[in-house]
Amino acid sequence: MAGIDLHTHLAPAMGAAEIDGLPGVTLDGGRIAVDGSHGGPPSLNQPEALEAWLDERGLEAAAVSPPPPFFRQHLDGADAARWSRALNDGTRRRVEGRPRLLPMAYLPLEHPVLALAELDRVLAEDGWAAFAAAAGGRSVSLADPALEPLWERLAADGRPLMLHPGSSPDSRLAEFYLANLLGNPYETSIAVAQLLFGEVVTRHPGLRFLLVHCGGLVPAVLGRWQRGVESARPGVPPVRVPMREAIREFYTDCLAHDPDVVDLAISVFGADRMVLGSDWPFPMGSDDPVALLSHRDANLVRQVGEENARALLGFSETATQEGEVS
User: Fold this and answer.
1) Quick one: fold of 4-321?
2) pTM (predicted TM-score)
């Protein structure tokens, strides 16, 4: 099946001169290491491995973002600005000459002014398919007024912002690998709650978000959030648009590892709001994202893999059929 994987990762390509003076960044055997981590498997540095994987799966393209260890949300001020610029330059370099690999530019939401400045910088460049940012972690609340200029700019541009969970600050998640198993869907849900209760998507109708891991906990708790609005719970503001309607401004990938959860996400977000997502090359991902939809009919599988992805990225059907995916 032709299709586009909207959730894959590659490490940035950086040389010694670029990392000079960047705190916590080293070159280790040709691989970038940040804060003592390579970010994941060695294949993160092998775009040819991702291309080969796409060929094996019959997929035409993949959207590429840096893995979460490279978000580095703990950096302050000037260091965060320098790192964001280096990270995005390195991401572009990693996919250079590989039109099937569609880069996403990272925006540091924990620093709203810096995130806007980096967005303005990358908007002046060609070739970016979308943008990426941390959901939760150390980000400011996504309802914070300081982010309003960023939302305005993204809404006007029209390309989506993928929210990928950052590292949860909850120390209780240290055991049983819960920082990933529970923390990731939890952080995504916090970010979505802030956007919905803060009416960010209502104020900026052109703003589009892509969620990973099948929307985290959102499909299971959206009705509870709406009940909180209807019963005027303390601290819950009135919202103009019901949650089930507002959530339609979000897309989600299909990475749930459970067909019943995939079905729930489709019922909540809509069949036209689900896309393929593998989380390549991480073990918690899927080696065959299309298989996550194998219990559904072929028309929906094609819609998710092809039509929805093209709509989200703003690609025409003609362009993708001709291989012009970047």
Assistant:
1) TIM Barrel (3.20.20)
2) 0.94
